Amino acid sequence: MYSQGLDIGADAGRAAASAEELAREEAFQRKIDQEIKIEPQDWMPEAYRRTLIRQISQHAHSEVVGMLPEGNWVTRAPSLRRKAILLAKIQDEAGHGLYLYAACETLGVDRAELIDQLLSGKAKYSSIFNYPTLTWADIGMIGWLVDGAAIMNQVALQRCSYGPYARAMVRICKEESFHQRQGYEIVMTLARGTREQRRMVQDALNRWWWPALMMFGPPDRDSVHTAQSMKWKIKRFTNDDLRQKFVDVTVPQAHYLGLEIPDPELRWNPERGHYDFGEVPWDEFWRVIRGDGPCNRQRLEQRRRAFAEGAWVREAALAHAAKRRARRAA
Ligand SMILES: [Fe+2]
Ligand SMILES: [Fe+2]
Q1: What pTM did the predictor assign?
Q2: Is 122 helix (H, G, I), strand (E, B) or coil?
Q3: How far apart, in whole angstroms, are the C-alpha atoms of residue 125 and residue 130?
Q4: Which positions ≥6 away from 173 have C-beta within 8 Å?
Q5: Which of 209, 290, 271 lies closest to 243, judged by CA?
């Protein structure tokens, strides 16, 4: 390196630049190792920035698309109380989407561009929201299992190395824990109800269990981003670790209600101190991720329609802002 540094001309300039870059990258990693948060104005490697944009925008899209399966039940909630709770929860999810788009924008990307990626089908969102909500028990399952899985993931993200993302997670986690409890309360009510209600809630669990386990992403052996994300402390646990944690917490909750987990291989392993469980149907996971789940087309169509129908609101807000600016300037 040093002998090359003695060369004159363009090569020497490049070597010096890369030595400087290396030093910057080392300083960046040292900060991360010391648990110092990275803030928007700080230098960061381009790959770190791109990884975060991908992850935070996928997360934002998931919050927004996640409103659709539940929105399906707002008009059919079984009581005024249930309807008010469900509406509040769906509004929370819209808020989560907005914090996350804002956090993503601190990385120098435009929200319009992110939304365009979602609507064109280029960006991904969580596979779980491509499943239909067939009965009221599904709304309970979404709260209990889907928000429950989201918490598992997001509690760890509160310690993410990127400041704006970590801070957005603090408030989101508080709201998610309310979501999880309202879901469990719906499930509990049905599990203690009539025979028909018990049948309905067991059927919903049978349909949501495996898709909920898929929410943690592909198995570690197939996860391309895990090692680098762990080094950068964007991720604190691997997909399989979080999945195991979720199973360990959720199985006793199901048993408490007399519900059966639809996995014949599920059993407590006293040596490991964890539940062993069967293989997640990964073929189905990849199919849904590639756009061929039960509701992928419908969800994107609904988002596109909502975006087009909201155009007048965006235009009116811009016109109002321009008018105020003009008035102030006059
Ligand atoms: Fe959320
Ligand atoms: Fe939620």
Answers
A1: 0.90
A2: coil
A3: 9
A4: 151, 154, 155, 158
A5: 209
DSSP class per residue in 61-87: HHHHHTHHHHHTTGGG-SSHHHHHHHH
Distance in angstroms (rounded) separating the CA atoms of residues 128 and 115: 19
Query: How many angstroms separate the alpha carbon of residue 150 from the centre of ligand 2?
Result: 7
- Any idea which ligand is nearest the CA of 147? 2
Q: Which ligand is nearest to the CA of 142?
A: 2
Q: Which two tokens stand for residue 139?
A: 């709304």
- Interval between CA 67 and ligand 1 midpoint (Å): 9
- The ligand whose atoms approach the alpha carbon of 172 most closely is 1
Q: Tell me which ligand sits closest to the C-alpha of residue 154.
A: 1
Cα 47 to middle of ligand 2, angstroms: 29
CA of 66 to the centre of ligand 1 (A): 8
Q: Determine whether 309 is exposed, middle or buried from the number of CB atoms within 10 Å of its CB (0-12, 13-18, 19+).
A: exposed
Residue 144 CA, ligand 1 centroid: distance in Å: 13
* Contact assessment for residue 2 and residue 16, using Cβ atoms and an 8 Å cutoff: no
pLDDT tens for the chain, residues 1 to 330: 333 333 334 444 556 668 888 999 999 999 999 999 999 999 999 999 999 999 999 999 999 999 999 999 999 999 999 999 999 999 999 999 999 999 999 999 999 999 999 999 999 999 999 999 999 999 999 999 999 999 999 999 999 999 999 999 999 999 999 999 999 999 999 999 999 999 999 999 999 999 999 999 999 998 888 889 999 999 999 999 999 999 999 999 999 999 999 999 999 999 999 999 999 999 999 999 999 999 999 999 999 999 999 999 999 999 999 999 999 998
Give the Å distance between the CA of 62 and the centre of ligand 2.
Answer: 10
Question: Max alpha carbon distance in the chain (Å)?
Answer: 85
Give the separation between CA 140 and CA 269, rounded to whole angstroms: 29
Residues around the ion ligand 2 (C-beta < 5 A)? 147, 176, 179
